[in-house]
Amino acid sequence: MDPKRKLAEVARRLRRAYGTPPSPGGDPLDILIKTILSQNTTDLNRDRAYQSLREEFPSWEEVLAAPEEELARAIRRAGLHRQRAARIKAVLAKIKEEQGRLSLDFLAGLSDEEAERWLLALPGVGKKTAYIVLLFGLRRPRFPVDTHVARVTRRLGLFSRGEPHRALAPLVPPGKELELHLNLIRLGREVCRPRRPRCPECPLVDLCAWAKEGR
User: Fold this and answer.
1) What DSSP line would sit under 47-92, residue for residue?
2) Which of 16, 37, 42, 47 shows the shortest CA–CA distance to 183?
3) 162 conformational bin, left if phi > 0, alpha if psi -120 to 50, beta if neither
4) Domains in the chain, please, with CATH?
5) What's the rounded Cα separation, in Å, for the pair 103 and 94?
6) How far is the C-alpha of 1 from the C-alpha of 9, rounded, in Å?
7) What Å distances lie between residue 60 and 2, 32, 46, 56, 85, CA to CA?
8) How would you write the pLDDT of the chain (215 residues) with one tens digit per residue?
9) Torsions phi, psi of 213, nearest 5?
């Protein structure tokens, strides 16, 4: 089965197994900062750090004006808090410098490609972070690849090397970006785990190159 047809079949089976997941959304800037906090930590730690940040600094203007050490203390639960605090301040400063206010609402008026380029020009923002903002905040057709999505699609034989966003983007069925992203994450967390994956429980086992090799 060619990769494009295989990923379409993956999307179909995961929808049958898990249904259509709720579609989270929100303000694009909120999503951007929350995604910065999510890198290399758990969802629970991310959420706790984000809640602590917003309780101490209710507006992004207050976050930008705050001393870096105070931000770091507020987001300590996310880990790497000093690096994250510096990155958040740098991102907010860049947005304020370019737009005159702390908002990403202007991205709605840009093309998909222009919005992607603008986000990728922010300090420390890579494709995964930019695509999460575009997909969840603006409902643009972008497919973020996190560690779970990368692991599952690699085991399925959909890509083996190189940049995963570039490899997978042409294969994703149009309009299925959000649903497929969330369902692959669920599969990666519950079944296709890094260690001791539950292959007998997997709805994709007959499509999986990794399972066929007996790994």
Assistant:
1) HHHHHHHHHH--SHHHHHHS-HHHHHHHTGGGSSHHHHHHHHHHHH
2) 16
3) left
4) 3-22+144-212 (1.10.1670.10), 28-138 (1.10.340.30)
5) 11
6) 10
7) 46, 12, 17, 11, 13
8) 899 999 999 999 999 999 999 888 899 999 999 999 998 888 899 999 999 999 999 999 999 999 999 999 999 988 888 899 999 999 999 999 999 999 999 999 999 999 999 999 999 999 999 999 999 999 999 999 999 999 999 999 998 888 999 999 999 999 999 999 999 999 999 999 999 999 999 999 999 989 888 65
9) -80, -5
Which residue in the block uniquely carries the two structure tokens 């989270």?
24
Q: Which two tokens mark 152?
A: 């599952």
Joined tokens for residue 49 = 């750090």
Q: What is the residue type of 103?
A: S
